[in-house]
Design goal:
mainly alpha; two-stranded parallel ribbon; two-stranded antiparallel sheet
Length: 160
């Protein structure tokens, strides 16, 4: 996948998971690396990495990877910053997938993100921009995102 994990190969076990039924913390048999990659698969985020081979990988530290594994409580407290951002963005990825510029717009997000924090910031900015698209044009979301280069807003998007 697209990330260069600094802790790759280490047998770091995750302790910060909760059993969904009991709510108690459990020690997983999976390594942080496996859990990290499984997060993207289980939350339908793989589309974000369709053209990953065209971009430089983002380096991810152990603490950054663990922030994506903090699911938190049912009320949303205790969630890791990255967990919340990626989880929210997965809903945006599932909309308007038939747009002509879908793949290009998604690739542009990872291509322009040089760091982990840059990727998170870019995802947040894109979510905010997409939220500003008028209701009648949401079927065309990714075309608008791709072609409105300066994100200044257009007649179609209504701006941010």
């Amino acid at each position: 996948m697209y990330f260069d994990l600094l802790f790759k190969g280490n047998d770091v076990r995750t302790v910060n998971r909760k059993d969904k039924k009991t709510g108690q913390r459990v020690i997983s048999d999976k390594t942080v690396e496996e859990e990290f990659y499984n997060f993207f698969y289980s939350n339908n985020l793989i589309a974000l990495f369709t053209n990953e081979h065209r971009a430089n990988p983002i380096t991810v530290s152990l603490t950054q990877a663990q922030s994506i594994l903090k699911a938190g409580n049912a009320d949303g407290s205790g969630q890791g910053q990255a967990y919340k951002i990626f989880k929210d963005f997965s809903n945006y990825l599932l909309t308007a997938q038939d747009n002509k510029a879908y793949e290009q717009a998604i690739f542009k997000i990872i291509y322009e993100s040089r760091t982990w924090q840059g990727l998170l910031k870019s995802l947040q900015q894109h979510m905010q921009y997409i939220d500003g698209i008028k209701d009648g044009y949401q079927h065309n979301t990714w075309n608008i995102v791709f072609y409105d280069k300066d994100k200044s807003g257009t007649k179609v998007s209504g701006g941010i």
